[in-house]
Amino acid sequence: MFGERKQMSESMLIAILLALAGGFRDAYSFNSRGQVFANAQTGNLVLLSQSIAKKDPYLIFKYLLPIFAFFIGVYLTEIIKEFCKENKIIHWRQIITLLEVAMLISVGFMPESMNHLANVTISLACAMQVQSFRKFHAVPMATTMCTGNLRSATELISAYHLKGDKKKKKKSIYYYFVILVFSLGAATGAITSDIFGLKAIWIDAAVMFLGFILMFKKESLL
User: Fold this and answer.
1) pTM of the model
2) Are strands 135-136 and 219-220 parallel, antiparallel or unpaired?
3) Buried b (16+ CB within 10 A) or exposed e, 180-213
């Protein structure tokens, strides 16, 4: 599985960078931008429903915005993919990544009074990432959330124990490793948010820009 040539945007190296950035982003938005989950819209849906039940218009608005931004992000990604998939100069996933970088840089300039806009921008970037990067080494995987990855990893390790399929064991390790990287990204996001404040998001932008540069390589053995 790891010895075959793959498109660079589906390589393990890119998966690591995206998971690191994804974990960082979620910790940053929660710790620095008013306890909103930029990546995991399930959490925002729960908080939105709770706010509706309490009839709190401020909180309804607060949690509805990132959910709507996520919807727009997925929709916009499909449009970009459709119009740019034949581009020979730059891959459409690189275009998405560069847009993410620009959005994350802009977030670092937004003061706390603009937290709503910051969370909308981050959720938009997360949606574009999760819609664009969905497989690595032909393994379906998310880099902005962990629930599905954890389920898949555990299903595979269970199948290995029951049937002895070593290929499934390798895939499960791959999932667990990406989950670990996501967690490290979240820890880094929390720590650097305390140190650098609102501008910590620029670290996330730098990681994404590195991914953008690496994707100029046509293929990867990783």
Assistant:
1) 0.88
2) unpaired
3) ebbeebbebbbebbeeeebebbbbbbebbbbbbe
